[in-house]
Amino acid sequence: MVNWIVKFFSRVGEPFTNALLKLGFASRFLIAILRHSTTALVRFRLTLREIWFAGVLSVLIIAVSGLFVGMVLALQGYDTLVRFGASSSLGILVALSLVRELGPVVGALLFASRAGSAITAEIGLMKATEQLSAMEMMAVNPIARVVAPKFWGGVISMPLLAAMFSAMGIFGGYIIGVQLLGLDAGSFWSQMQSAIDFQQDVLNGVIKSVFFGVAISLIAVFEGFDAPPTAEGVSGATTRTVVTSSLVILGLDVLLTAFMFRGV
Amino acid sequence: MKRGLIDFWVGLFVAAGIASLLFLALKVSSSSTLPKNQTYMLTANFENVGGLKTRAPIKSAGVVVGRVTRIALDQKTYMARVTMVLDKEYEFSRDTSAQILTSGLLGEQYIGLEPGADDKMLKDGDQLKITSSAVILEQLISRFLFSKAQEGGQATNNAPTNNAPEK
What is the separation of C-alpha A9 from the centre of its chain, rounded to a whole number of angstroms? Predict the structure, then answer.
């Protein structure tokens, strides 16, 4: 009987202790990455290669999605605003929603699934094929040589990609609003400019994307490093990267938005 | 992929990212907070600020000359004390009056400054003496209805308990 109760509670508690263990390991991992970051920054070519993989190769999907999101926002926003005779505020609507929320958040979600999964798969496969152990044999620290450059590549790429997403979205809104729906270009830009504050809106969006960049990169390298060294393990880790980073992005977004825009 | 080519594309990527940030900074947004050494501070007491918020614009003749930085209740007079920061470029005479206005019917509220004729100019930390409060729509409507009811009572001459002084 007592045995059964103990078993029951350990079964119930297991997911929580596991999650806590993982969180602790991830935090220690982050500290280890930061400690071994000097190599990534001194031998910047390593980081450059990761910016290429994480950032440059994501530009296409980010730019195209940004353009389409901006276009859809303009079409939907116009439909509502024109009922109140406020269609000249379309620029404000498009730019504000992109700069504050959609640029950082949707950009980060795309980045997590495009680049985060690739980072996890690469590290996981290196572990499965014992390349990481081989490095250790040669007295090369795999965290300094492989993990830290990937981490910094992601952290550097994310804010730039989010800014591109917002810029392309506003451009898409301009194409729909001004070129297709025939709004006045002057009032579109000037109303946008007077309503959007650089510090309050643009800078806070950039800060958000930096947070997301750190979160995605950490989750991606951690899941790859933690993956069981089997084909199944690597595929599971890749899935977990996308799911966990998406949830963390949205949760962090609530927190950061509450900090930045409360009562304004 | 050759090394030089990676460098080239990463350079292009970073340049494009910075360019979009610049686009957001220069074309999409404007900075409302002026540098500290280019501004001066004024205060004004209002009976009622209505829906005025901090960061609301201060306008004179429709031109934005500053921002509201703080709204607080004065514990002695029970009036609203509004602190505002104005651009040093714009100077106003000492008998300038301030009123709370609304842009459009449902728009945001702002403070309008009406310059006076005094030779002396307002300095940092001065107080605007002549102010008029925000128009509260409910008070306006009730006043209008009240006067309408009174008019109606006078016209039909059967106002029951009319406590307004007549004749």
Answer: 36
Q: How many domains does chain A have?
A: 1
Judged by CB atoms closer than 8 Å, whether chains meet at A45 and B3 is answered as yes
| Cα A217–Cα A220–Cα A226 angle in degrees, nearest 5 | 135
In a domain, B141, yes or no: no
Q: Does residue B92 contact residue B121 with C-beta atoms inside 8 Å?
A: yes
H helices within B2-99, ranges in order?
A: 3-23
For B105, the 3-state DSSP assignment is coil
User: Is A82 contained in some domain?
Assistant: yes
Whether residue A51 and residue B10 make contact (CB cut-off 8 A), yes or no, is yes
Say what the pLDDT of residue A196 is.
87
Is B105 part of the contact surface with chain A (CB cutoff 8 Å)?
Answer: no
- Shortest alpha-carbon distance between residue B6 and chain A (Å): 7
pLDDT average, residue stretch A17-42: 88
- What is the span of the domain harbouring residue A249? 39-259
pLDDT of residue B167: 47
The answer to whether residue B21 scores a pLDDT higher than 80 is yes
Closest residue to A59, CB basis, from B1, B13, B28: B13
Residue B115 lies in a domain: yes
Q: In B, which residues are within 8 Å of A115 by CB distance?
A: none
- Whole-number Å distance between alpha carbons of A179 and A170: 13
Share of chain B above pLDDT 70, in %: 87
Domain containing B65: what range?
36-134
The count of structural domains within chain B is 1
Interface check for B23 against chain A (CB to CB < 8 A): the answer is yes
**Residue B163's pLDDT is what?**
53
Contact A167 B29 (CB under 8 A): no
Mean residue pLDDT across chain B: 82
